[in-house]
Each structure stands twice: as structure tokens, then as C-alpha cells.
Hints:
99 residues; 3 helices; 0% strand; elongated; CM_II_prokaryot; carbon-oxygen lyase activity
Amino acid sequence: MAKTAADCTTMAEIRENIDRVDRALMALFAERWSFIGRAAEIKAGLGIPADVPERVREVRDNAHRNAEALGLDGAFYEEIWAQLINRAIAHEKALLGEE
């Protein structure tokens, strides 16, 4: 059963809920990844390259700002997003034949 951190009274409950959140995060990452493949399809039709620096900056800034809005370390989460972006660009380049 889903609980808040404050509701947990044992390490077993903490671990169970961390695992639950991790599964939910993976589902969201899978959903995010589905948009990466579709972006490559759309970019191919429009002649847009995989790497669009202005958009990369925007997504990184969004990650930083969204993290801070939730009381998290913006720089840390921006770096995680940088890794996500780099992997997505590499995937799009492969799909677009840019490699």
C-alpha cells in the first residue's frame, strides 16, 4: 500500500515504498522514451537535426527549475537530465542516420 515517508515506521515499509516509487519512475521514463522515438520520426520529416542546442538548454533549465520548485538540488537533477538528453540525442542521431 502506498504510504508517505512520514507514515512509514519500519525500514521494510521505507524500502517497499522506495521500490514502488522507483517502478513508477521507470514507467515515466519509458513514457518519456516513447516521445524520443516519435520526435526522431517528426524531425526526419521536417529536416530537423537530432541535436537542437536551444531545446537542450531549455530542457536542462526546466529540470533545474522543476527540481528547485520541489525543494531538490537543481544542479544535481539538471545533470541527470543532461545524461537523459545525451542518450536521447545519440538515439535520435542513429535513427536519423546522422552517425
